[in-house]
Amino acid sequence: MLNQLPPRERQIVDLLYQRGPMAVADLCEALPDRLSGSAVRAMLKRLEDKGAVARQDSDRGYLYSPTLPETKASETALSAIVRTFFNGSAASAASALLGMSEKMDAAELDELEAMIARARKETK
Fold it and tell me: Is the overall model pTM greater than 0.90, yes or no?
């Protein structure tokens, strides 16, 4: 869902993931290009209607936060990338990612090996 958002709405959701629940005024200040409070409120309303953010009352007005846990949102976005650019092949995507890294340190390689071992166990 998040990968289908317009860039500005996605920017707002990304800020909410990075900083946690935020009020409209905080979002206005955090955005790289200044927008009016009414413009940000309009985008938040659209995001609410799409189910991407939720609001809760606070002493500062409404606080907005993403509805999906960040790990789930990342997983969904990555799945779309793998389907689109790698014909659904996780192995091809992983190979491309490994090719992008200059040099992985031993800890990162160990972590990858452990994840592969866990994945093998889960498929048996």
Answer: no
